Amino acid sequence: MKKLLAFAMLAVTAFSVSACNVNTPNDEGDKILDYSQIYRHTPEKSAEISGKSLYKASYGYTQSFVQGYNGFYYEYAENGATNKMTLSGEVWKGSSAEINGGIMKSTSSVKAVRSFVSPVSGAAKISGNPSLVSGSEGVVEAYCDSEKLFERVITDDIGVWHENSVNLAAGQTVKFVVSGDAEVYWNPSIDFSGKGEESLHHAADGYYGDVHPFYDEKSGQLYMFYLSTGNQTGDKTETFGSLLTTSTDFISYRDTKISVDKNNPPEQDLYFALGVYKDKEGVYRSSYGKGNYAGASKSYDLLNWQNGSEMYVDPADGMLKYKYRAYFDTGVHSGRDPDIFYDKDGDKIYCVVMNYYSERTDKGEKGLALYTANSDGVFSTKAVKLLDFTGRGDPECPQLKKIGDRWYLFYSVYGTGTAGGVGRLSYRVAGAGVSPENAEWGKLKEYSLDGGDLHAAQLCEVGGRYYMYGWIGSSPNANVWGGNLNLAREVFVKADGTLGTRCDEYLTKLLNKGRIAKLSFGSSVTSGRSMILAHVDLSGDYAAVELTSGNARYYAGIIKRNGKTYLFVNDSLTGSEREVEIEGDKTSFDLKIIADGAFIEAFADDEYSVTAHTTLADSYEISLSGASFKDAEVCRLADGTNIFD
């Protein structure tokens, strides 16, 4: 419970945003969620634990403030003697030392001691990430009875990672000790379960097909609508069926049941809920392709969906028609993947859709088209042709978004993904103040926001911020459909109107569980899940971190090729599937590489990102290769069980 307090205190100096304020950084005055409101986590209140389980220090104080609850005791050491602390409110105090939840406060003469008395005998992993809350430095030590397990000096809010495998007998004591004039946050765990770590790259049952994220401000939840791959083991296994997972913290997801209304079901009984938007009245709506028009569904709770088409009589011809249906233009053979955006400023509804003007073949005539409606839901039948894709792969999962005073057109071209599958997220940006109907999209430059391993990604507005999600193929180096989610990836507008992507500073802090070792040329570090941080001065053709496990070797870094510079992750220095171009002629970069087993996400300057599904295992030999590095270090990457510790 005290982790959030400590994190908020650290955020004052570590982040550019406060942990409790709401910012208003744009001219329109729209409130923007603080990161702590996005990654909001309710500390787990632990009932009494027994047996060979996972014991966290926080399990000793979130539910009950009693000495010995779940094996934890609160003590202080002074003048060579160790004594029990006494409880004052929710703070344990002894002489000048205190333990307040996860924060251990010591002084120059009194140590703060958190002890754990093992309730069972067995093999245990003792691990944690002590970090500095206040003071210039603190010393942390851990003992198993009288045997010292480790000692570290803590000087900042990143701290260090410690991990020891021990065999404990019932009744043995593990002590976690803080000394020096300092406050240290430390939530160590003693794990007898042997369950191992939990990947942060979540996969739904049967993997995610195309994802369509929607953030609901009313409930503060992320709704990850997605298409079934047909491999589910749950109730619904039919391919292309609409399924849902939800998250309140943007880290963990749970399967959530959705249904069709029995009395007024949508026309489409498979993919009845895909991309979601809210109309002028606050009703949740979605759309889907029905051959010669875009059909509609609606919901009042995002869980039960009904037919969203509404009958009306067209006064122009007296014919019975439907609101919220976008009928395709004359000459259109068929259409699919519609996505709808409601522009509250212009009080207009826009439907961008892939239209085929001939039979659906690789060489057939096709493109992205735009249909418009007023907020009453009556769409025009005359399309504005946005982009011609004749001769290219299909522009799948398109989106039209207004961010600030610019419109952005997104799509994923089939054939630009791994092994020729559905591709990376590409986009074009219209000029400031130019409407989507009037933008000359075909003359605008095409940009990419990731490489070929992140497929069919979609943007989602989250309280004034934007995040992108796609699926990482379930098998590396293969043309498959469906896979794992990428980590939350923030998208932001740069000064010239183009977009940047980053692992935001709050998530970076959550992911970093402390330093393990420095990296230098000619040496290597062996580590499990890792976050590698480094500064690069690119004096040669490339600078990369090498990750090796068994026969697999991958490079993650910066490379120059044919006069261009790329952020890349690949198993060689010649491949080009997993890369994104870096604009300009920069030669100095800050790298952040997240290595979560086989999944690698690389970031440059908090502006560019690339995702990769590799053949690496869960432990790596990490080294440096290429041009000049400085300040390179390996930190421990959080997993699903300890990210909020």
Would you kindly provide a written description of the structure presented here, covering whatever features stand out?
This protein is mainly beta and 645 residues long. The protein has three helices and 53 strands. The strands form eleven sheets. It has a six-stranded antiparallel beta sheet, with no helix packed on it. It has a six-stranded antiparallel beta sheet with strand order 4-5-6-7-15-10, covered by helices on one side. Strands 21, 22, 23, 24, 25 and 28 form a six-stranded mixed beta sheet that branches.
Helix and strand layout, with pairings?
Elements: H1 2-14, H2 35-38, E1 54-56, E2 72-78, E3 81-84, E4 86-88, E5 91-94, E6 97-100, E7 103-106, E8 110-117, E9 122-128, E10 131-134, E11 138-144, E12 147-154, E13 162-168, E14 173-179, E15 182-185, E16 189-191, E17 208-216, E18 221-228, E19 242-247, E20 254-255, E21 259-260, E22 276-278, E23 284-289, E24 293-299, E25 304-307, E26 310-313, E27 320-323, E28 326-327, E29 334-343, E30 348-356, E31 366-374, E32 384-388, E33 395-403, E34 406-413, E35 425-429, E36 447-448, E37 454-462, E38 465-473, E39 483-485, E40 489-493, E41 499-502, H3 505-511, E42 512-518, E43 525-527, E44 530-537, E45 542-549, E46 552-561, E47 564-570, E48 579-582, E49 588-596, E50 599-604, E51 608-613, E52 620-626, E53 628-637
Parallel strand pairs: 21-25
Antiparallel strand pairs: 1-16, 2-3, 2-8, 4-5, 5-6, 6-7, 7-15, 8-14, 9-13, 9-16, 10-15, 11-12, 11-14, 17-18, 18-19, 19-20, 22-23, 23-24, 24-25, 24-28, 26-27, 29-30, 30-31, 31-32, 33-34, 34-35, 35-36, 37-38, 38-39, 38-40, 40-41, 42-53, 43-52, 44-49, 44-53, 45-46, 45-52, 46-47, 47-48, 49-50, ...
